[in-house]
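BUG: 3D viewer hangs when loading the predicted structure for this chain

Environment: internal workstation, default settings.
Expected: structure renders.
Actual: progress bar stalls at 90%.

Input used:
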Amino acid sequence: MDCARRGSPASRRRGPDITRDQLAALLTASEHRSISIQVLPKGAYVTGGAIAGLEGGFFIASAEGSLDGVFVESAAVGHVADHPLDVTAICKRYEAVRSAALPARASTDLIAKVMTEWQQT
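Structure tokens produced before the viewer hung:
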């Protein structure tokens, strides 16, 4: 939520209307049973230092009857893997990030609070 806070460089580039609309879209999405939004607070910490997994995005894909797969992206390249060791490493990274995040209800409360702050600008 730091990037959505008033005065942050990212929010100044987008402007208040766009930021409010994006936060509202997150709140609307969170109402769906299949969607859970968890905010990773600024300064969140995972054992061992910085939160592993924030150097780039990653996706975990699961389907009945097939091996799990992962997609990991960096600034230069994306990589797809289905080797069990790779999948396990990314799943552990996901759990570390998720464990440092706020619970879903606290996350939506924070999003609503920040959205209200943006409505006052």
